[in-house]
Fold this sequence. Notes:
three-stranded antiparallel beta sheet, mainly alpha, 6 helices
Amino acid sequence: MESSAGITERAGxxxxxxxxxxxxxxxxxxxxxxxxRGTLENVTGRWGSLTLGALYDGTFRFNELRRRVDxxxxxxxxxxxxxxxxxxxxxxxxRPTNPPRVDYTLTPLGREVAERLxxxxxxxxxxxxxxxxxxxxxxxxxEAVRAxxxx
Length: 151
């Protein structure tokens, strides 16, 4: 549904800041130039979603977080944390100790985003048997088509 200002309304999008309803949304992730696309990419990318999910468990130092998010490189974790901090989802607390101590934790907004991501993660993990069966059927069909073309 579109308001007179041409702003797209979506069901359930009325949550948020004080006095902001669905009609007041000025962002449309489906529009090419919408800045929400970058945030969505930071949140839903592999390392962003895993980092947010890990931080939901509490405060972590960099290397603790890197061990928790198995497979992420130091460079990718650093870039991910910078992007999430810039978007206001992660708080970086650098203490001037020797050696310096840096802790990462979710902001209230980051915690809300992580809760929603974890619900999706739980859903996907709970349905993996179906996903794996579908992959198997797909792969068998593709292999049969390739074999028929080659024959």
